[in-house]
């Protein structure tokens, strides 16, 4: 009987804990360069997902549970023949933009985050100097991160 009570209590604790754990987030980085290969290397402070070469239209994906403190952050080094850069592909601030699926489409102009709602993409220019042929692109990914954050604030927290 004691054993049964302990089991019941443990089960209750487990269920309560489970509710407190954030839902899974699905990340995907897809090569939409229209021909060239894309080399990616994604990591968080805890996981190194390795280096992968993606042919056109191919994607690399993974999922995780953001930690309860909201400090989970993934970044990817992206490189192709005309551009490169390191981009934050997930952090807590993006949660309004892509609550479950954070899909990145990597285009000749740069990587773009597809937002769930509204149906919009937030694009970031290449950071590497090879990217200059695509235009004014000397700014880093941080500026675009700021843009994303501001956009979240403007559309959801007026
Ligand atoms: C792209 O990668 C594939 C697989 O690694 C390779 O077979 C192919 O030659 C590469 N293409 C280019 C244009 O580098």
UniProtKB/TrEMBL annotation:
Q: Where in the cell is it found?
A: Secreted
Where does the record locate the signal sequence feature?
1-20
Q: Please provide the Gene Ontology terms (biological process) for this protein.
A: rejection of self pollen
Write out the coiled-coil annotation as residue ranges: none
InterPro entries in UniProt: Self-incomp_S1
Key word Transmembrane helix present: no
Task: Give a Gene Ontology cellular component term annotated to this protein.
Answer: extracellular region
Q: What UniProt keywords apply to this chain's record, in alphabetical order? A: Secreted, Self-incompatibility, Signal
Family to which the UniProt record says this protein belongs = Belongs to the plant self-incompatibility (S1) protein family.
From the Swiss-Prot or TrEMBL record, give the protein name: S-protein homolog
What is the species of this protein? Ilex paraguariensis (yerba mate)
